[in-house]
Amino acid sequence: MAEIKKDKILNKNRKDSVIICFSFIIIVFFVLSIFSLSGCSDKVDVKDIVKSKFSNEKAMNNAVKTVDDFFKFLKDKNFDKAYELISTKDKAKHDLEYFKKDLQNMTQIVEVEINWVEVKNNVASVGIDLVDTYDGEEKAYKDLVVSLIEEEDGSFKINFWD
């Protein structure tokens, strides 16, 4: 009986040893894999990652603010201020008087909801939902995309006539 217990203990110890050895081999394999993979990519500076993250957030916030202000000015029929948020390229195509004439018969904007923003390089896209009224009837437009371009001064302006 004592010999059976001794065999069970030895078998258990062997199983534990195999498990420990196998676990050790797996850990060594993962560590070596990490070291070998890290040599395949360029070294990345944490400072650059943080800087890029904050600059992208700043760009997104600037684009959203431009769209929000633009539609507030349109809602208030303040076309002079809204025109200031048009891209330089679009201003070269049409002057303020043309812009006012273009919007003269515009429906009344009731609400604009900004849903998302995406910035890639110097171009931003802002997804909105818009509610307006025309002849006393309210209409909702979902998933509209407002396109913006980053100007030389770093501000985002609306691509209006593209």
Question: Notable features of this structure?
Answer:
162 residues; four-stranded antiparallel beta sheet; 5 helices
Structural commentary:
The protein has helices at residues 2-38, 46-75, 79-84, 88-93, 96-103; strands at residues 108-120, 123-134, 137-150, 156-158. With 162 residues, the protein is of the alpha+beta class. Strands 1-2-3-4 form a four-stranded antiparallel sheet, covered by helices on one side. The protein is elongated, with a radius of gyration of 31 Å.
SSE order and pairing:
Layout lengths: L1 H37 L7 H30 L3 H6 L3 H6 L2 H8 L4 E13 L2 E12 L2 E14 L5 E3 L4
Antiparallel strand pairs: 1-2, 2-3, 3-4
Strand arrangement, major sheet: 1-2-3-4
Uncertain runs:
none
Structural class: alpha+beta
Work out the strand percent: 25-35%
The dominant shape is elongated
Summarize the structure.
The protein has helices at residues 2-38, 46-75, 79-84, 88-93, 96-103; strands at residues 108-120, 123-134, 137-150, 156-158.
